[in-house]
Amino acid sequence: MSDSYLAIPPILGVLGLFVALGIYLVVINFPEGDEKVKKIGDQIHLGAMTFMKKEYTYLSIFALVVIVLVYFSPLGEDTALAVLAGALSSSIAGWIGMYSATKANVRTATAASQSGAESALSVAFYGGSIMGLCVASLGLIGLGSLYYILSGDAHSIEGFAMGASIVALFSRVGGGIYTKSADVGADLVGKLEAGIPEDDPRNPGVIADNVGDNVGDIAGMGSDIFESYCGSMVACIAIASTLAIADREGMMFLPLSLASLGLISSILGIIIVRAFSNSSPALSMRIGTIAAPIIFVAAAYFVINILVKEMGTTVLFGTVLSKAQEIWLAVVCGSAGGIAIGLITEYYTGSKPIVKIAESGQTGPATVMITGLSVGMQSVVLPIACLILIIYISTQLTDLYGVGIAAVGMLSTVGITMAIDAYGPVADNAGGIAEMADMPSETREITDELDEQGNTTAAIGKGFAIGAAALAALAIIAAFVSSVSSKRGVPLELMLDNPIVLIGIFIGGAIPFLIASITMTAVGDAAFEMINEIRRQFKEIPGLLEGNAEPDTAKCVDIATSAALKKMLLPGVIAVSAPPLVGLGIGAEALGGMLAGGLLVCVLMALFMANAGGAWDNAKKYIEKGNLGGKGTDTHSAAVVGDTVGDPFKDTSGPSMNILINVMAIVSLVIAPLLS
Amino acid sequence: MSDSYLAIPPILGVLGLFVALGIYLVVINFPEGDEKVKKIGDQIHLGAMTFMKKEYTYLSIFALVVIVLVYFSPLGEDTALAVLAGALSSSIAGWIGMYSATKANVRTATAASQSGAESALSVAFYGGSIMGLCVASLGLIGLGSLYYILSGDAHSIEGFAMGASIVALFSRVGGGIYTKSADVGADLVGKLEAGIPEDDPRNPGVIADNVGDNVGDIAGMGSDIFESYCGSMVACIAIASTLAIADREGMMFLPLSLASLGLISSILGIIIVRAFSNSSPALSMRIGTIAAPIIFVAAAYFVINILVKEMGTTVLFGTVLSKAQEIWLAVVCGSAGGIAIGLITEYYTGSKPIVKIAESGQTGPATVMITGLSVGMQSVVLPIACLILIIYISTQLTDLYGVGIAAVGMLSTVGITMAIDAYGPVADNAGGIAEMADMPSETREITDELDEQGNTTAAIGKGFAIGAAALAALAIIAAFVSSVSSKRGVPLELMLDNPIVLIGIFIGGAIPFLIASITMTAVGDAAFEMINEIRRQFKEIPGLLEGNAEPDTAKCVDIATSAALKKMLLPGVIAVSAPPLVGLGIGAEALGGMLAGGLLVCVLMALFMANAGGAWDNAKKYIEKGNLGGKGTDTHSAAVVGDTVGDPFKDTSGPSMNILINVMAIVSLVIAPLLS
Fold first, then answer.
1. By CB neighbour count within 10 A (0-12 exposed, 13-18 middle, 19+ buried), where does B362 fall?
2. Closest to A377 (Cβ–Cβ): which among B366, B497, B513?
């Protein structure tokens, strides 16, 4: 076999981008709507792109500093190149995704009003698919080309994941602060004080709120998934590179091949969703998301058998498995585990628990808070059990490489998972546009149905993202340990009763709380500014509440943008600098402990915050559907308080946790050669 | 030196009990007040003692099962005896403390109305001192006698801490559920719905609320501290017993000698507080709490030098320290660390952060929640830094024995720390009684001042309890590792990259979230029952709100009692059974991982919940003092929501975390010989 097969992943990636371009052309051909709709759509689009531009300016400076440091460190120019490639690939994916999503939202609203549900679903889902395909394709192009160019030099390639994780950090944290300061600010004054409905055009914060949905859930989420996707591949490459076996090269290339298969399966899945879109949106998306991993898992069996030839050691039903079969089972385990975590998340954010939270609203906001916090805490138990099972099974099959490949299995079909994730904010935006443009109530009904479906898929997506991030981080940590050990020539012993390891564990546990606190405070502070601005406009602009004057929405967009950019720096600096400080300052043992403590606490806090937030959100929606008295009751007001607290939980601090542990892990892996 | 010195700790313990008896006689000689006051006092006293009786019935059954299992297991009868001794000592301390506190509260109120602030402070502080001295004395009597009888058989003695921890588990969890279901229930209906002030005699839940303060903050807190106090001593004994050095016996006996010194220092501290009580309450208590550890630390230097004779290895300022000096420095480090953690807690629950929370009330309850959660998260960072420093310094000085002896250093002056802790609820109750008995407003002013001081000391006490519990648990975990290693003959290797250890870490991290969720839910459910009952009484008892009829307070006491007892079982069973299930089911490596993960997450969650809760509470009080518009404003209502959520945080779920990790650690240590 010549080395030319190494070119397959980037070529498939380019193909994926062409499919995305095709979908974009389809989307753009849908009618944009009348002047009023267009104007609102343009405001959102412009607000989003302005934010992206400013964010990327900050990001470039930060990334440049990191790249220069890496370049002049003993890590050298190949690693610096990889960091640049990773940062660029992720940024481009985010940019294209945002650009397309903010073109699709207005067309979804218009399609809902002009052609009905089926065509609205198509536009919204297509809009999301572009982001999904970009993430999958650019990951393959970037990482695949790098692998080809550096001929599999595992260590330099790690820089790619580091570049991606820096982008993710800023997009998630900055995007999270943006979206929630706008949302909390607009809701608190608009709904509770002025008594006007959500997305009412009179509310000065409403454009910022809609921009925020894109900034947080499209760009932020996309970069998060991109980072786990590449991180898990890089971890597998790194672990495999330290193995002294005949299949070493095959096992190093395997994650890229699986991701290539995943991209093809995702494209097939997207076609399937489209084909079923005349049935219910819920059903067609469910069929698509189930079909893609099934196709992927089946095809993976053959690909793994081509790349890995040795015999394994596991005995199952009296037969010794081949190494390929062991790896395949780890892939299946990861894929199934991802679905299981998603379904558990769906239960906690959409079933009995939300009714319980809604009912507790009858005794006021305090009991809504207590019940929601308790649901959130409980909701970590089963996903953790899934992770434990995945870790146990995959390591029994094929050691720590198994954890990495399980993560790759979970993330390979990222094209469709991310498409369905990104569909949510597009549909949500479409609803907002319909409301702002005063479209008829039938249009709102269609967008509401699409939006509701989007909320569930977003919740599942979040659970999935946390599970994937946890496994990816664990694999990266394992790669870190191998890397330090092979550098030292003796194993890095991370013994729990070594005080230095313990100190690291405590440091690692405290950092997520610090970051969560900083991001929560950032949302609180920015929302406070926003609230004061909205109150000021209601007071000072004559005729605004009566609908006779226009609000100054640009001012609110500015507040959210500058707050997000200002406040994302500190968490970013902490996350990136903690590993070198601890690793070079105290030692590799402390850094290993820090990663373990950080992993545990980040996963727990991420699940807790995401699920509590999702449950509060849906409890409020449950009441708004007319249960327990419906809108306007005290029970509803109590639920709105829960939802408002849940906003930064689920969309700012919670998602920051995924990134935090991945950034810390990948930075540690990259600096491993510098640790004595 | 004959073995007769081994009798000193229990003899000093008996002496301490006599001092407590003397103080009790002083308290009981203060006038109880008029009929109305007496009746209220009796209701609280009876409610508290009824709860204790019922709780101890449940507890006996549970403890009996554990004792029988231990007796018939290979652990044998000495361990079973030790478990019994530990459970009995802790229960007796709790019983005496509760009995005296509920005699002191009514006398404090009467003293405030008849003789003024100085004498009210005396009674309240004396009431708390009885609990403090009982904890310190019964620990010395129980553990000291056992050490004497079993001639230092380290392994059997471990059972003592296990017995104590089972009592602590039930007292803290049961007490926490009781106190907060009553508090939340009474507040939500009374203050918010009926618009009557706190502790108003028309509120049917008011007696249960006042009983709850004793059940949670006297009996619960006492058993918690008792457990850490004995746990840290037991851990030192266990670690020292595995050392093969000449000073082995001296180092095993050292914790008991330090605790004896601590008891004497505490008695001196109590005398000092009394001597200064004609100055301000704040000042006199501060002088006492600072004087006691100073006396202790100075005296400890001489005692350690008598028991430990070898040379150490640490070089400080060019001199090689003796082992005694090393140990003494670890004690100093623990003692100073405890004070530092207390002061940090005081900052977060009484300084700028509470003003920030209060101000966020201007934009409603949601921002109060967001700010409070963020303050709570941030507040973990510095205490964790203190713990890291203590761990680092003490292990550098004298390995893991150092962590244990630092914990002993922190906890030795438990007599006065606990006295000041227990003073709070006595003063709080006195305020409640003054309100219910319609005493003049000057009396309320005195009790309010005492109560406010009590809130601060309680917050400091909580921070201190968490720090102490963390160190004690860590020392017990270290003892567990030594114990399994010496049983196996090869070291128990808890490597972080061993998947089995990792699985344990995840299990250990998930359990605290599960227990926190169960206890939060329990409070929510019980409060819901309470709310419905109070609403029913307001509706169905004619003339109640007008003050012409009496509420059925006993019914509310019953609801809180049965809810607490019913709901404390599940967390208890989980905490006690998790170590044998994981240890025997998966292995000692998984159990070691579980303890590490559990320790990290329990400490973080305990700090987070205790400090967030304390900060919300004091933010509300800050507004009630007239800031930001004072009582009756929307800002105040928003702050009340924060306080209500904070109640189960700081008094139920948070404190459960301390116990949880200590129970899991000590059960693991006790079953260590059973693990292969």
1. middle
2. B513
